[in-house]
Fold each of these.
Amino acid sequence: MRDTDLQRVRALPLFSGVSSDVFRRLTGGAFLQRFPAGTTLLLEGDRVDFLYVLLDGTVELQGAWKDRETTLAVLRPVSTFILAAVVLDADGLMSARTLQRSEIFMLSGEVIRRTMKEDSDFAFAVSQELAGCYRGLVRSIKSQKLRTGVERLANYLITQRIRQGAEDKITLQYEKRVLAALLGMTPENLSRAFASLASHGVTVRGPTVTFSRLEALERLARPSPLIDNHMPPQNRITSKGESERWASEVARAVGYAH
Amino acid sequence: MRDTDLQRVRALPLFSGVSSDVFRRLTGGAFLQRFPAGTTLLLEGDRVDFLYVLLDGTVELQGAWKDRETTLAVLRPVSTFILAAVVLDADGLMSARTLQRSEIFMLSGEVIRRTMKEDSDFAFAVSQELAGCYRGLVRSIKSQKLRTGVERLANYLITQRIRQGAEDKITLQYEKRVLAALLGMTPENLSRAFASLASHGVTVRGPTVTFSRLEALERLARPSPLIDNHMPPQNRITSKGESERWASEVARAVGYAH
DNA sequence: CGCGTTGTTGAAGAGCTTCAAATCTGGTGG
DNA sequence: CCACCAGATTTGAAGCTCTTCAACAACGCG
């Protein structure tokens, strides 16, 4: 494992506050694994033994019931996932699947729990991380229950636009069928939702979306700070030496985070 | 404040593991307040200064957008709420409103955060509580995105039946329009959903629901341990001297918890 | 260049909401 | 004790949103 990888883990809000000693203890038995695209890392219902840290690639968290399935989150580096199951030493409630070739750092759940009981700074950081995840899900549920499909898409686009630098053009970060599942609709319906946003100045060509009448789009979308988190997850600030453009609430990698 | 009230707070998973000394510190400046039915305790977007503990009555957590509003959870004693906002010292994402006359114990958020940083046992308990809340929301989202309205209702009824003692008759704990909002539908649609469950042996008379063909209902509902939490929140075990009927996962007061 | 995957479009119908009106219910004052 | 009222619930009709299934177009990769 490269030293720079370990530094990226160290820079996560979850670990940045703890002492070097504690960090060494946490990562002592940990290891890095590479997975090809389309690998199922974890099936919902599986016992969770590790905390996962996505260092490179893309991971989708999904849930299934009867013959239906849906996407709960799409993660980009650097993000942790299934922390809640680790803390409770419980089965995972979501499946995790790579969408691209991915590098994942895996930390022992047992060590995480033991360290939390010994180090209050780390336990506090875990609480903050979980609280951020929780609030991400609250935002998701509100979006899902209060908005129509077109409204959810419009707000997703506005959020992406801000996160990608507030230009008049953005690039969709993953396949439209994944986006459709994330937004809680069918691919066909997403396609029609894009079509109906054309009358609000939105043009789609492949993965590129351009905005020509932002006021019209915002009038439809009515983004709200109580639903839409326009900040990127704090994790990404430190992921690629990017400058700190964002004065950020502790906003983590769950919900519409990416 | 009665001593038995303080004991009920003490018995919460969140506090039961800490020393008497730490508990005294946490509850030092805390106080009990009584609110009539229909009181708004907190508006979404408000700064949250206290951790709330519901000791008696009923509280609804809701979210609003444009002219729509929805219910995210209905809480019964003994439950904590808005812990995530307290941990992050952030604005609340949900409004809180009493549905009945309620007694609520309020603890200083500042003291909670300070104590977490000093006492790793308490910080660990907060993490467990938040992890349980998080998992409750994951269940809610999966139910919302993967099931139709009738399916959500059928599973809600099955969960309630188990929690109320697995008899062939249950009592709905609150108004149907609140239940409708919790399940993500209109009151009219809930009414029709009940009507369509009649063909599966479900009879409704006022707040009383009886089951005559449970197999038929379960065939439709297909409850899943990865969505439906059939255990009551651990909190309620200690709420009224009730016996410990449930070997329980740490399952807290959020989502379809009640 | 061909083929499989991904995305789009059309038609039909299921699921859900809205509005309006009728019915039921619990609580109140006489 | 009873009649009455306000709010809650149910029912009906209409229409909108979304899904499903099928067919077609576009894209990307070997």
Note: The first strand of chain A starts at residue 31 and ends at 35.
Amino acid sequence: MARTPVWKSIATALTEDIAQARYDTGDKLPAEAQLAARFGVNRHTVRRALAEMAAGGLVHSRRGAGVFVAARPTDYPIGKRVRFHQNISKGGQTPAKQILTTETRAAAEGEAAALGLAAGDMVHVYDGLSLADGQPIALFQSIFPSDRFPGMLETLEETQSVTAALKRCGIEDYTRLETRITARQATATQALHLRIPEGAPILRTTGINVDGNGQPIEYGRTWFAGDRVTLTVGGDA
Amino acid sequence: MARTPVWKSIATALTEDIAQARYDTGDKLPAEAQLAARFGVNRHTVRRALAEMAAGGLVHSRRGAGVFVAARPTDYPIGKRVRFHQNISKGGQTPAKQILTTETRAAAEGEAAALGLAAGDMVHVYDGLSLADGQPIALFQSIFPSDRFPGMLETLEETQSVTAALKRCGIEDYTRLETRITARQATATQALHLRIPEGAPILRTTGINVDGNGQPIEYGRTWFAGDRVTLTVGGDA
DNA sequence: TGATATTTGTGCGTATGTATC
DNA sequence: AGATACATACGCACAAATATC
């Protein structure tokens, strides 16, 4: 078996340092020469690690000045009420969304099952990109029964907010039944959107949101950039 | 109503076979030609069924080798009470643990902070491997304040159970404060223990367990093989 | 303002192990 | 087995941008 490249372990070590807030956002990392000394390697090897982290958007360097922490991993609470806008704002970051596609089509088998629909029933599909402080955090796909929310897509394109769109459809509140989490590797398209290297770790969550009567109203899948997000369970859930 | 396609019934028949453990994980299914004979259909029809199952992740095929039963992802509930033995048994699988190392040493900075200790206080460290149905699913490290649980390591080595060891130390119940989840890539050593390719996606969770008075008693980190585990939040949490 | 030290960016050369043809 | 390509890692030198006194 091939052993892990030194530059990769250095990258994870530094990533860990940043995640554990040993370096804060905006802080300058030690100079490359110092890091090379600390890890006992050549400066090139440190540079390879920093390049990887820069590709992931974790740091950025300024010639003559130093290497700076671009972003600390965002905390994203998972619980009964999952609201993107709230989650990001509460962490002191600025949330934003980009619509990739919206369409209305027949539900696939798994989608229909999740929403309690019959196979072939129509659904609204909302593909998008979530950002925090301008940096892409996650790709998501939200699926709604179109029977129940006929004119929903227009509101969604206006406000980009699931909560707002559902509210206009008469849903005052909704809660998350269950969230399922697995780890995957980024495909080429995912990597492109999230601006991470291909094959980088991805947190995939799937969840079903229900209205007050326990009726499923949204089947959502989200692919988080693993380096930039920490999902949290409990605490304030 | 159109009657179900033949390929679909074949897919469900084979899925049933796998669910009833007639074929175990990792087993090779009979060759497509043999399956075609068994079901009395053309090989193309069998292939359509296998394609559906492969899309669902149930099997995967290797050209020239055969079609193999993919490991069924283990559901692992994350919530207030996280118990490895319970979690695995409830899913109908057989839990097991392997001790890798146990030691008592001074706490690192982050560990001390998590447990509410002073820097340099002594802690018990328990490194191990968790298995379900004989297949490794996670590496873990549990850290306990040694002041409070002096003779804990012996019990731990006997029973391999955190819950049992804590019980013998007078802790009847404990709950999880918060769980933090990120995605990483497997290092060489992790890959070796978990028997996954290096760089494969890993789910890393960190959590703090507290006693009835909210006093931290365990700081635990776990690295799940992302392909083999689905963390679930809510539902029965 | 201006000289100087620091720090990143770039280029070239060398060596080694691994995978592939 | 041999040839070839590729990734990793080290070492040295210098250019360019920035910080500091």
Note: The radius of gyration of chain B is 22 Å.
